[in-house]
Design goal:
The chain is of the alpha+beta class and 179 residues long. Helices cover 25% and strands 18% of the residues.
């Protein structure tokens, strides 16, 4: 099943040599895969800037890499492309992350947005998740909707509206821990 997550898709084509070299900088022979993937995640966090509105689901990975900016979906798909190019099965994870308000402020309802990160397959271990947007290994504050080869496999909202008039979709999500 892990082999399924090695191949290119429409959204994540085969990585360029530059992207492959970017990944290889983290994966040295003397480093275990968890350390390498963690360092790779940190490099994306430090090298790329979160810029809402810069991209959409059709923005090519090469553009995200060249401009070094995008959103969580872009960072996840970039990482997937890079890691697959060096032979690591990598899947797209779609879900939510619980956010916390600044000290002394109330949490706003609906402030939690959909989120994306990636997961690598490690032989004799299983899947391990990494969040390059926040430079974290996902924990209990992460809610997984599903896994796919790319965003298009597991987008949080998908459907068709047939209507004679205009329509507008508004979605609010609130994530909170329950006792």
């Amino acid at each position: 099943m892990a082999k399924y997550f090695l191949f290119e898709t429409e959204s994540i084509p085969t990585a360029s040599n530059e992207i492959r070299e970017y990944a290889l900088a983290s994966f040295k022979e003397d480093r275990n895969i968890i350390e390498a993937a963690s360092e790779f995640t940190t490099r994306i966090f430090n090298d790329f800037k979160f810029v809402s509105g810069f991209s959409d689901i059709t923005t090519p990975i090469d553009v995200i890499f060249k401009e070094k900016k995008g959103v969580c979906q872009d960072f996840a798909q970039f990482a997937i492309s890079a890691l697959r190019s060096i032979g690591i099965p990598t899947r797209y994870v779609s879900g939510y992350i619980q956010t916390h308000p600044a000290a002394g402020e109330e949490k706003l309802f609906g402030a939690d947005a959909s989120h994306a990160w990636f997961s690598i397959y490690i032989p004799n271990f299983g899947w391990a998740d990494f969040d390059p947007t926040n430079n974290k290994i996902p924990g209990i504050q992460y809610i997984i909707l599903g896994y796919g080869r790319d965003y298009l496999d597991i987008s949080p909202l998908k459907g068709v509206v047939q209507s004679s008039g205009n329509s507008y979709l508004s979605v609010r999500v609130n994530v909170e821990a329950l006792d």
